[in-house]
Amino acid sequence: xxxxxxxxxxxxxxxxxxxxxxxxxxxxxxxxxxxxxxxxxxxxxxxxxxxxxxxxxxxxxxxxxxxxxxxxxxxxxxxxxxxxxxxxxxxxxxxxxxxxxxxxxxxxxxxxxxxxxxxxxxxxxxxxxxxxxxxxxxxxxxxxxxxxxxxxxxxxxxxxxxxxxxxxxxxxxxxxxxxxxxxxxxxxxxxxxxxxxxxxxxxxxxxxxxxxxxxxxxxxxxxxxxxxxxxxxxxxxxxxxxxxxxxxxxxxxxxxxxxxxxxxxxxxxxxxxxxxxxxxxxxxxxxxxxxxxxxxxxxxxxxxxxxx
Length: 308
Description:
- The protein has two domains: 6-242, Alpha-Beta Plaits; 243-274.
- Helices cover 25% and strands 16% of the residues.
- It contains seven helices and eleven strands.
- The mean pLDDT is 89.
- Residues 282-308 are annotated as: Disordered.
- One of its GO terms (molecular function) is 4 iron, 4 sulfur cluster binding.
- It comes from Metapseudomonas resinovorans NBRC 106553.
């Protein structure tokens, strides 16, 4: 499980060197066990040395209200009234989903600014980030944020530094209810299947696993009471996918642009072979009799010193 071997880099077509075959890792968040204590938020800030600005009270439990470059995970609270009239409090830990087919990596134009490790974790390298924000456009979950201090993009790294030495992410370590667990993706799916059976036995017929295939699956998964309607959980996308703009750029526009550049270069080469280099001919000096300046006899030269 411990690995920092890279299998994909942004804006790089060079094949990656051979890497060790590693099991995919995953973090499973069981929202039915979450109590909204925000211990995971604090642990994330502590481990990653993040100090966000103190915000304002908006009359809700969400604090901060949104992800920032200094808050890589936030708790989102939603009150939901079912068709039967039952009031439910849906709590979701929001952060990077570490997609198997990351849209941020596909959209990033800076080589190596976004990498994907062999274990599935998607990480940002701020030293190579140019702050263009294309990763935000490419992310179907609206996760990355640009810092106003250094104009670099930031998001949850799934504690790749801890995982690389065999430790679990900080949020997993601190969760007091066991709502967040970590391990191989296969093990997490098996664990989720057991939880789903339990939820269905308690009346949640639509309980299920959130592992959207529109992005090839994710390395952060949810067990939801209402898996048929993920958007109930503070706008979790029902069917996320990579932005059409990114697909257009990477799928059609970029190859066409490269083809156009190649045709221009090829045309220039044949023009040079057939016609040769362009030469600029210097202006030749006039030959023969220069143009005679004829003086009008009616015009006399005037000398102010001579007496009139």
